[in-house]
Amino acid sequence: MVSIAMLATAPAGAHDPARALTSTSDGAPWTFEPWAVALLVASAMLYVLGLVRLWRIAGPGHGVSIAQAVRFALGWLTLAAALVSPLDSVSERAFSAHMVQHELFMLVAAPLLASSRPLGAFAWGLGPLLVGRAGGALRNATWRRFWRMLCAPVCAWVLHAAALWIWHVPALFDAALRSEAWHIAQHLSFFATALLFWWSVLKPRTNTGRGIAVLSLFATMMQTGALGVLLALSNAIWYAPYLAPDAASPFGLTPLEEQQLGGLVMWVPASLVYLAVALAIGYRWLAPTKSRLSPRLAADSGFDPDYPRAR
């Protein structure tokens, strides 16, 4: 349902700086697109309804943990902030703000929603009849094979990397700035592939899976950082719409400075997010090795997994 909301989040005229507000005297408005608001509200209501039904039967924290519910709320709020807050209006004129908006989709909302595993709550919100029908369809062998293929680490990584690089090709990025349909496709592909990527990274429970997740995160950090470096160090404007006379930056920056700042956003903060998650998963990956220490070494290190039984 949250993914569906992304389909309706592009403004009616897309992000064409030439048609954006030309003065900051009135401030940047909130962009309450009816379809976006309706679908965001519907997804929140469905989730809350499912959570209430589930917790009424199983008890609070069962089926969907409180931590998962909090992550869903934070992810949903991040989407809403990126899509209806003044950030959406500012991004019409500021390339750097546009990059912040995209990073919120891919680096904040997507991992929070993927780790919250909201499908269970959505299913309870739909009710038993619809859930039964949907469950029957999802148990189809062909669908299950297709879903496993999409969620495989290599496939998820390739799809996400492809979406990022393809949409930053100047001709396609310019088309997304000027066309509502292309803008919807751009945002949907960024968000959907980010959900797949983070699902593949955060779901592993085995050491092998965690090792692959760490490699995937580092590889993504390298390729997104490379794109950010190219934008930050370029002396040429990549995207023509930001050169339009009416596309004045609200921050008083030149189009080239806007592009360089946007590249820095993709390069430094984004890389830190991937690095932090990789280190966290790597720690969990390596932590079980402590249990294989000999009793003597375990005692010397202050870690004795058999302490309760030994005493």
The Rg value, from CA coordinates, equals 22 Å
Percent strand equals under 5%
What's the helix count?
15
Low-confidence stretches: 1-13, 16-26, 290-311
* Mean pLDDT across all amino acids: 81
Structure description:
By secondary structure, this protein is an all-alpha fold. It has one domain. Helices cover about 70% and strands about 0% of the residues. It contains 15 helices and no strands. Helix 2 packs across helix 6 and helix 10 crosses helix 11. The radius of gyration is 22 Å and the shape is globular. The N and C termini lie far apart (about 55 Å). The N terminus and C terminus are likely disordered.
How are the SSEs placed, and which strands pair?
Blueprint: H1 2-7, H2 34-58, H3 66-84, H4 86-90, H5 95-116, H6 119-126, H7 128-138, H8 141-151, H9 153-167, H10 170-178, H11 180-202, H12 207-233, H13 255-286, H14 295-301, H15 307-310
Helix pairs in contact: 2-3, 2-6, 3-5, 5-11, 5-13, 9-11, 9-12, 10-11, 12-13
